[in-house]
Design a protein that fits this description.
430 residues, single chain, mainly alpha, Growth Hormone, Chain: A, 17 helices, 2 domains, globular
Length: 430
C-alpha cells in the first residue's frame, strides 16, 4: 500500500511541490537573463519577437495532443523527463557561454526545447495533483500554486536583474541546473499515483495514435458547434494577438524609449506581477458580475487602458509606464478568470480536457502572426506604436462585445449548445 493510499499525502506531496517551486524560480531567472542577453546583444525588436514566437510554438502545436498523451503515459516519467530536459539544455548552453561560442540561434533553440518540455510538464503535474491531494484540500493547494506564481512573477525579475549584474550568464544557467535537480531528485524516490488507463478506442482495432487524433477532432467539433464559444475564442485570439507582442517588446521599450537597463525592465515586470496578485485577490473577494461575460469584457477594456497608458508614457515618466503595467496586470485576472469559469461551468467534465486544450491552442495560435508583424514595425517606426494601437483596439473590442447577443447570452444558452455538441461527438450506431 502506497503513502497515497494510506492517506499520508502531505509529506510526499510537499516534498515534490517544493522541488517544483524551486525549479520554477530557476527557470524564471534564466528566462529573464536570456531575454536581456538578447536585448543587449542585438537591440532588435524583431529578434525578441522571433525568440518569443519560438518559445510559443510548442504550446500552440503540442497543446491539443499533450493532454491526451499524458493521460496515456506514466506521469511521473513525463515530469522527470521534462525537468531533466530543461536542466540539460541549460547545462549545454552554459558550456557554450563558457567557451564564448554562444550565438543568438543557440538561445532560440534552447527556448524551443524548454517550451516543448513545459508543454508536457504542466498537464502532467496538474493531472497528478488531483490524485495526490484529497479532494477537500484541492482548493488550498490551488491557492498555494497561485501564491507561488505571484511570488515568482514579482521576485524573479529584480533578482534576475541583480544576478545578471553581478554574475556571468553561465553561472545564472547553473542556478537553473541546480533547481532542476531539486525538482528531479524527489521524483526518483516518490512514486506518483497513476490513473486508470485510458479507455480503448471506440472503433475496433483503432491505433493509439488514431485515438489521440480523434480526441483532438472531438475538441474542435465541440467548439465549432457552440457559436458563443467560437466568439469567445475569437476574443481570446484578439487579446493574444494584441498583447503578446507588447510584452515581447518590453525590453526594447525600456532601452530605446525610457533609456533604462535590466533593473528598469525588472521593475516593469514586477509591477505586472503585483497587479496580477491584486487583480486575482479582487476577483476572489468580489467574484465578478453575475453574468461572467460582463466581467470579462470589463476586464478587457481595462487591459486596453493599461496598455494605452504604457504606450503613451513619455520618456521622462517611467513611473507612468509602471502604472500602465500595474493596471494591465490587475485587469488580466478580471478578463481571463471568468473565461475559464464559463467553460468549467458549461462544458461537460468528460470533454473539458479536450475542449480546454484545443481552446488554448487556437487562442495562442495567432500570437506568431502578431509577433511577426509588430517586431519589424517597431524597428521601422516607434516602439510605442504597437502599444498605442493595441491598447486602443482592446478598448474598442471590449466595448463591441456588449453588442453581440450570442456572446452576452453564452451561459443562458449553454444547455442547448452543449447537448448538441456532445451529441455530435458520439459515434454512430447501427
Amino acid at each position: 500500500m502506497t503513502v497515497w493510499q494510506q492517506g499520508k499525502w502531505q509529506r510526499p506531496f510537499f516534498t515534490i511541490w517544493i522541488g517544483q517551486a524551486f525549479s520554477l524560480i530557476g527557470s524564471s531567472l534564466v528566462q529573464f537573463a536570456l531575454v536581456w542577453w538578447l536585448t543587449a546583444k542585438t537591440g532588435s525588436a524583431t529578434v525578441l519577437a522571433v525568440a518569443t514566437l519560438i518559445a510559443l510554438l510548442p504550446d500552440i502545436l503540442l497543446a491539443p495532443v499533450a493532454g491526451a498523451l499524458v493521460d496515456r503515459w506514466n506521469r511521473r516519467i513525463v515530469i522527470l523527463v521534462a525537468d531533466s530536459t530543461i536542466g540539460l539544455v541549460s547545462l549545454l548552453l552554459a558550456f557554450l557561454f563558457i567557451t564564448d561560442s554562444a550565438e543568438v540561434w543557440h538561445i532560440c533553440v534552447v527556448m524551443l526545447v524548454r517550451a516543448a518540455a513545459g508543454a508536457f510538464h504542466w498537464p502532467a503535474m496538474e493531472a497528478s495533483t488531483s490524485l495526490m491531494v484529497p479532494e477537500r484540500h484541492l482548493s488550498r493547494v490551488a491557492g498555494l500554486n497561485q501564491a507561488m506564481n505571484g511570488v515568482v512573477t514579482v521576485v524573479s525579475p529584480p533578482l534576475g536583474a541583480l544576478l545578471y549584474a553581478v554574475l556571468p550568464i553561465q553561472q545564472i544557467l547553473f542556478v537553473d541546473v541546480g533547481t532542476a535537480l531539486l525538482a528531479v531528485i524527489p521524483l526518483l524516490f516518490i512514486p506518483l499515483p497513476q490513473p486508470p488507463r485510458a479507455a480503448a478506442p471506440t472503433e475496433a482495432g483503432a491505433a493509439p495514435a488514431a485515438s489521440v487524433w480523434r480526441d483532438v477532432r472531438d475538441g474542435f467539433r465541440y467548439i465549432a458547434a457552440w457559436r458563443g464559444l467560437v466568439i469567445l475564442m475569437g476574443i481570446g485570439m484578439a487579446v493574444n494577438f494584441l498583447m503578446e507582442p507588447a510584452f515581447a517588446l518590453a525590453p526594447i521599450l525600456v532601452t530605446n524609449h525610457f533609456g533604462g537597463e535590466a533593473l528598469e525592465l525588472a521593475w516593469l515586470e514586477s509591477a505586472w506581477g503585483v497587479g496580477m496578485a491584486v487583480g486575482g485577490l479582487l476577483l476572489g473577494v468580489w467574484g465578478g458580475f453575475k453574468r461572467r461575460i460582463v466581467t470579462t469584457l470589463v476586464g478587457m477594456v481595462g487591459l486596453g487602458v493599461g496598455v494605452l497608458v504604457l504606450g503613451l508614457a513619455p520618456a521622462s515618466a517611467f513611473w507612468m509606464g509602471l502604472v500602465g503595467l500595474f493596471i494591465t496586470g490587475c485587469m488580466m485576472p478580471v478578463a481571463s478568470g471568468p473565461l475559464h469559469a464559463i467553460m468549467q461551468a458549461t462544458v461537460e467534465p468528460g470533454m473539458q480536457g479536450r475542449v480546454l486544450s484545443t481552446f488554448s491552442a487556437v487562442v495562442w495560435a495567432v500570437s506568431p502572426a502578431g509577433l511577426l508583424i509588430v517586431g519589424p514595425v517597431a524597428d521601422a517606426v516607434d516602439v510605442r506604436v504597437p502599444y498605442i494601437a493595441g491598447g486602443l483596439a482592446l478598448v474598442l473590442l471590449g466595448i463591441a462585445g456588449f453588442f453581440i447577443p450570442a456572446l452576452m447570452h453564452i451561459e443562458q444558452n449553454r444547455r442547448e449548445a452543449t447537448s448538441e455538441a456532445a451529441a455530435s461527438t458520439q459515434p454512430a450506431t447501427g
